[in-house]
Write a structure and sequence with these properties.
Layout: H1 25-34, E1 49-50, H2 62-68, H3 79-91, E2 96-100, H4 103-114, E3 120-123, H5 128-136, E4 140-143, H6 164-173, E5 180-184, H7 197-209, E6 213-217, H8 221-231, H9 237-246, E7 250-254, E8 265-269, H10 272-285, H11 296-309, H12 312-331, E9 344-348, H13 349-352, H14 362-374, E10 376-377, E11 379-381, H15 383-386, E12 402-406, H16 414-429, E13 437-441, E14 452-455
Parallel strand pairs: 1-10, 3-4, 5-6, 6-7
Antiparallel strand pairs: 2-8, 7-8, 9-12, 11-12, 13-14
Helix pairs in contact: 1-14, 2-11, 3-11, 4-5, 4-10, 6-7, 8-9, 12-16, 14-16
The protein binds ligand P61.
The site of ligand P61 has 18 residues, from α4 and α5.
Length: 459
């Protein structure tokens, strides 16, 4: 037999393992009730395969672990800070680094510095923490992503693109009311969808014309660059990352994602005045400007992880694993967001459970059902995550009602992906039995993290 294709494998082998616990269906039925049907409220000991998030769940490399031993835990001027600063300058190209404990720390600081009450912040789809910090600073988020991004079935290769006409309308109609445009690469809530370089260049031109800054959410910029490489221009991921960043004035970063760490983040900017304001603020909320809430060893792990994250073979295996899972589900006719994203596969809960109206939180209910079936933990990304309008208190009713299967980096094997896919198929075949949920406890901020639910009919 002649092979017409050759498989590839992960560019690493496994040195340390962490046992997983398998529970019974009866056990999980109790656990999900105790957790108020919210997968965020499960104990991780009760989870078999944890696809809640790719945030902070990365497996670090032996080099990163070795770096942890080089942690310089000085209060001020830790050598690991300088290593991180050099790395951020070299890999992303920004002049100033302000470390923070994680991404939202950076979002808080940049929002408070740049936003005045009544301002508008256009962006390529909301992200929960990003929008909340914009609102807490008195601003209002305006969605300027292309319409295809709100359609799970659209196979547009760059669903993270900005609708330039929409953006222009916001900029023209609100002179001096737009402190910056916020662009995410890739777009988490759209299903891990990338923005094209071509579109980003056009956004840069447009914002420059209006004298408005462009701030990047660089949390998954290397995954975005991988898609740019595959779908747009065949250049190394590292080069593309650098180019994306060069089109922006600064970035917020959660080092818990692309940079392959378990904790950490930063704000990076080119402007000296903004950097000075940020250093003034970081000491109030995060820690000294040379650690920002991270220990020296954390900063070392992030610095080393950043370099690993922009390697082509790493990214091929990382995104390749997500594609493998997605393709399996697609082949079985299970409704997922297309194209398959960079950090996870997103189930289209509206199409999966057409009999459950959005008011009854179909994605929340589907995530609970998947957990009960197999112990696989996923996350709701629909009406519960979208929350309420900050000024009217009305619930947002997003077009996308999704369940996210986020894949931690370098953690699970192909067999784990198979087990996951088989569980989703079982739940799909039995979908008629899944009912809706009503919220019985609703926290004020980021309600999805701690909300509790009950079935509308006994399940
Ligand atoms: C996640 F359910 N993401 O995807 P921090 N920007 C972007 C993120 O994806 C992100 C942050 C900023 C998480 C954790 C999480 O509604 C949720 O380091 C594109 O988590 O502070 C985080 O970075 C914030 C899960 C956050 C959520 C908010 O799983």
């Amino acid at each position: 037999m002649r092979l017409n294709r050759r498989s590839w494998a992960e560019p690493y082998k496994i040195k340390v393992v962490e046992p997983l616990r398998v529970t019974t269906r009866e056990y999980r039925e109790r656990a999900i009730v105790d957790a108020g049907y919210n997968t965020f409220l499960l104990r991780s000991d009760d989870v078999y395969i944890d696809l809640l998030t790719d945030s902070g769940t990365n497996a670090m490399s032996d080099r990163q672990w070795a770096g942890m031993m080089l942690g310089d835990e000085a209060y001020a001027g830790s050598r690991n800070f300088y290593h991180l600063e050099d790395t951020v300058r070299r890999v992303y190209g920004y002049k100033h680094l302000i470390p923070t404990h994680q991404g939202r720390g950076a979002e808080h600081i940049i929002s408070q510095i740049l936003i005045r009450p009544g301002d508008l912040i256009p962006g390529n789809m909301y992200f929960t923490t990003t929008r909340l910090h914009q609102e807490l600073a008195g601003g209002r988020f305006v969605d300027v992503i292309i319409p295809e991004a709100h359609d799970p079935a659209s196979e547009h290769p760059f669903k993270g693109n900005v609708d330039l006409a929409k953006l222009e309308q916001v900029l023209r109609g609100n002179p001096a009311r737009v402190p910056y445009v916020s662009v995410a690469a890739t777009v988490n809530m759209a299903g891990g969808q990338p923005i094209s370089l071509e579109n980003l260049r056009a956004v840069r031109q447009l914002t420059a014309l209006h004298g408005v800054r462009l701030i990047l959410d660089a949390t998954r910029v290397a995954e975005n660059a991988y898609f740019n490489q595959q779908r747009e221009v065949d250049r190394p991921v590292a080069e593309l990352v650098r180019e994306i960043c060069s089109l922006t004035d600064g970035c917020t970063m959660s080092a818990k994602k692309d940079p392959l760490a378990n904790i950490g983040g930063f704000l990076a900017v080119n402007d000296d005045v903004i950097a000075e304001s940020a250093r003034n603020m970081v000491v109030i909320y995060e820690g000294l400007h040379t650690y920002g809430g991270m220990s020296g060893r954390d900063m070392e792990a992030v610095a080393i992880g950043i370099d690993e994250s922009v390697q082509d073979d790493h990214m091929r295996a990382r995104v390749g694993q997500v594609q493998y899972l997605g393709q399996k589900l697609r082949d079985w006719g299970i409704p997922i967001v297309l194209p398959i994203g960079g950090h996870g596969v997103f189930l289209d809960a509206r199409a999966f459970l057409p009999h459950v109206p959005q008011e009854l939180c179909p994605a929340q209910s589907l995530a609970a059902a998947i957990y009960v079936d197999s112990g696989v933990r996923t996350m709701e990304r629909g009406v519960v995550s979208a929350g309420r309008d900050a000024s009217t208190g009305e619930e947002h009713m997003p077009q996308l009602e999704l369940v996210r299967l986020a894949i931690p980096r370098r953690v699970y094997t192909q067999a784990h992906m198979d087990v996951t896919a088989e569980s989703i198929l079982c739940v799909y075949e039995d979908r008629g039995r899944i009912g809706g949920l009503k919220m019985v406890y609703e926290p004020k901020y980021l309600r999805f993290f701690q909300a509790r639910f009950e079935p509308t009919v006994r399940q």
